[in-house]
Amino acid sequence: MPDPIVVAEGLHKSFGDTHALRGLDLSVPRGTVCGVLGPNGAGKTTAVRILATLSDPDAGHARIAGYDVVREAGEVRARIGLAGQYAAVDEKLTGRGNLRMFGRLSHLSRRQAHRRADELLERFGLMDAADRQVAGYSGGMRRRLDLITCLILRPDVLFLDEPTTGLDPRSRGEIWDSIRELVADGTTVLLTTQYLDEADQLADDIAVVDHGQVIATGTPDELKATIGDRLDVTLEDPAALPAAATVLNTLAGTEPTTTDADRLSVALPATGLRLADIVRELDHAGVAAADVSLRRPTLDEVFLRLTNRKEPAR
Amino acid sequence: MTALTTPLGRLRWTLTDGLTLVGRELGRLRREPGQIVAALVFPVIMVVLFGYVFGSAIQVPDGGDYREYLMPGLFAMVTFSAWLGVMTRMAADASRGVMDRFRSMPMARLAVPFGQTGADLLTGLLMLAIMVGAGLLVGWQPHRGLIPTAQAFLLMIVLRYALSWVGVYVGLAVKNDRVADALVPLGLPFTMLSNAFVPTGGMPGWLRFLADWNPVSALTAASRELFGNPGAPSGDVAWPLAHPVTAVLLWSAALLVIFVPLSLRAYMRRGR
Ligand SMILES: Nc1ncnc2c1ncn2[C@@H]1O[C@H](COP(=O)(O)OP(=O)(O)O)[C@@H](O)[C@H]1O
Ligand SMILES: [Mg+2]
Do A132 and A14 reside in the same domain of the chain? Predict the structure, then answer.
């Protein structure tokens, strides 16, 4: 296992009475994508701001490539890129103008800054819009420009705070493609998201954050395995729903959820149950099932279970 | 980036990065020259409105021409727009995350406030030049020769620079472009409550006190004196009007001493 390039240990941060972080730990191996997944207000942005040297923790510490984010902030800044929750570019300038300006501010020579701007515009498909004012860009183009602005200096670690929030599905897909390109270059990416499919699609490892703490970590598959398989039952007659619920409750040891007028879903214990047993028990109770199926849980279900939320996160 | 670790390197990068940011502001202006036009429409309306409409009924103290009396006041008004412009720009950058991007980059940290105030100085010079043209058109003139005229403009520039640091601080403090935009209209009554358009002699006592001590009045009085325009204060007047040049210099020094450290602290502070 390679050395972690991002390490956070016991981060605490309060804003007045709000404990945004309560001992957050994180470790991201070099060259991987870590998805920090959590509902609104979980503390994702606060954690990213500390890791990107914008804010100091009240307690705990964090290192990027071995440099302390508080005491060696300058060294850290030379190695990271940050795309925050808003597209932080100058609306009045053109796309090319923005990249050149940020290139100059990254202390590239004028020639280098111009060359790098063109390279990035070309590679990430913004060349056609390069000389238009950013104010006229679509939301997706703006985020893409924001993203490539972080790449001017080829950072070792890229922090992306909810890179696709508020985008339409097509723009999201484009941002995902851009992120995959970066990862192919070997950049380590820490991305926060409220979208489970985003974490599922992009992340090697996921850290589920709630109330300022990491409550679970693992690959998407590992996380899914922690809560066992799901059983979906579709009834022939919706009137049999209460009877079916009782059967499933007894078998699985937890209350099933009604996903439709005639559909029930329940998490099975990690030990598992045989499909044949389930069908037989339903039959005993006089419940006619149109369909009974076992499947891996979705990350949504993992997430709901872990955070005990009633509503899906999105 | 290693150069950032030595004091000399830091100074050099502060200058270089500051210039890049000045270039950014000029790039914005080139794309939207309308901003300068918008900033100037108001004083030009004032030239017409006061110069020709109200002016016909306003009595200048020593019986001079009202438009000659008015122009120094309008120069002061343009000067005092500095803090509003800088405030809006700082607040916009802070609320859109651009400031965070600057802060997370390995650039010279002080370049941002210095770049912003430096850019305002350049736009200020451009605006002054346009106002001088407008003034000459409506019959205003400096009468005392090159040196005092140059001194008057220098005073405006010094005070403008000091005021732009007020803008840096307020912009960083409000951090929200909508709040900043809402503050802008406050600039108007502040400049009106002065000797810029009418003599303060006729105001009720408490109002007159405020107007006399308003730095807008000091700058207006100083320019009238240095340009040789009518309405230069004489006789028994408040201290800032009796010594307007000194008063403007003191105001500038005080604003810089207070707001430069405050702004730098607000900019460097981490953790929101
Ligand atoms: N500057 C701040 N002042 C006060 N409260 C804050 C501030 N920043 C964040 N918070 C609070 O801290 C908690 C975590 O916020 P945040 O890190 O933005 O969550 P997320 O990014 O996961 O949505 C929230 O309850 C939020 O209201
Ligand atoms: Mg957030």
Answer: yes
Phi-psi sector, A219: left (phi>0), alpha (psi -120 to 50), beta: beta
Domain of B235 in residue numbering reads as 24-270
* Judgement on whether residues A20 and A137 belong to the same structural domain of the protein: yes
Of A160, A190, A224, the last residue of a domain is: A224
* Same domain flag for A10 and A109: yes
Mean pLDDT value across residues A245-265: 84
- Whether A305 is in a domain gets the answer no
Residue A122: which domain range? 4-224
Identify the band that residue B1 occupies on the pLDDT scale cut at 50, 70 and 90. Answer: very low
Query: To probe the interface with A, which of B28, B95, B101, B175 has the most A CB atoms within 10 Å?
Result: B101
A314 pLDDT higher than 80: no
Q: How far is the CA of A20 from the centre of ligand 1 (A)?
A: 6
One-character DSSP codes across B223-253: HHHHHT-TT---SS--HHHHSHHHHHHHHHH
For residue A29, the cross-strand partners are A4
Q: What is the domain count for chain A?
A: 2
User: How many Å apart are CA A124 and CA A200, to the nearest integer?
Assistant: 23
Q: How many domains does chain B have?
A: 1
Nearest-CA distance from A84 to chain B in Å? 7
Q: Quote the DSSP letter at residue A136.
A: G
Residue B11 included in any domain = no
pLDDT of residue A1: 52
Q: What is the pLDDT of residues A79-110, one digit of tens each?
A: 999 998 788 999 999 999 999 999 999 999 99
Quick: pLDDT tens for B34-64: 877 877 787 788 788 888 888 877 878 777 8
B8 in any annotated domain: no
The overall average pLDDT reported for chain A is 88
Q: Of the residues A167, A191, A224, which one is the last residue of a structural domain? A: A224
Q: Is A307 in the pocket of ligand 1 (CB under 6 A)?
A: no
The pLDDT of B138-143, averaged and rounded, is: 92
Cβ contact (<8 Å) for A54 and B96?
no
Q: Which residues does B95 contact at the CB level (< 8 Å), separation at least 6? A: B175, B176, B177, B178
Sign of the alpha-carbon torsion through A87, A90, A93, A95: negative
Report if residue B17 sits inside a domain: no
* Contact residues on chain A for B2, CB-CB shorter than 8 A: none
* Separation between Cα atoms, residue B270 and residue A250, nearest integer Å: 55
Of all protein residues, the one whose alpha carbon is nearest to atom 12 of ligand 1 is A20
In a domain, A163, yes or no: yes
